[in-house]
């Protein structure tokens, strides 16, 4: 494993994120991962931050709410089948790790592990969260992204460590 400065590979991370990445969290002995395609890396409150969005209907939402932490695994290999599966299957009903034979490795700064794949892995502690307010959202984005009014909660996670496998 090679430790990385969070922004060294930020543009590459964002390019890959647009095609899909894994957001993983755990609480009370339950581990889950889901596919994300939206997110952002930045510098807020004098800290490196990874911002992710999760709908309250998702099992991952329940776990992040309990744990206050997450990992983001940015694959540097073809994982489209696994990302597709994790994007449509619920962790409430399916053990995605067993179904896909996904292994994890221990994070160094948080309890939640990351998926053991070639790529970049961000260990994050939630600093702030906010629920999207429809009245504050651009009307065109609202119409296109939220036809069912299932708005995301945005989590701002301090990047405590980044590991490259």
Descriptive account of the structure:
The protein has one domain: Electron Transport, Fmn-binding Protein, Chain A (Pnp Oxidase, Chain A, Roll), CATH 2.30.110.10. The chain is built from five helices and ten strands; from the N terminus they run E-H-E-E-E-E-H-E-H-H-E-E-E-H-E. The strands form two sheets. Strands 1, 2, 3, 4, 5, 6, 9 and 10 form an eight-stranded antiparallel sheet that branches. A two-stranded antiparallel ribbon has the order 7-8. Strand 7 and strand 8 form a beta hairpin. It is globular, with a radius of gyration of 15 Å. It starts with a strand and ends with a strand. The mean pLDDT is 92.
The helix-and-strand class reads: alpha+beta
Distance between the termini: 5 Å
Shape: globular
Overall mean pLDDT: 92
CATH topology, anyone?
Answer: Pnp Oxidase, Chain A
Rg (C-alpha, Å)? 15 Å
Total strands: the figure is 10
Total number of distinct structural domains: 1
Strand content: 35-45%
Low-confidence regions: none
Assigned CATH architecture: Roll
Along the chain, the helix and strand elements come as EHEEEEHEHHEEEHE
The CATH homologous superfamily name equals: Electron Transport, Fmn-binding Protein, Chain A
Number of helices: 5
Largest sheet: 8 strands, antiparallel
Question: What is the helical fraction, as a range of percent?
Answer: 10-25%
- CATH level 1 name: Mainly Beta
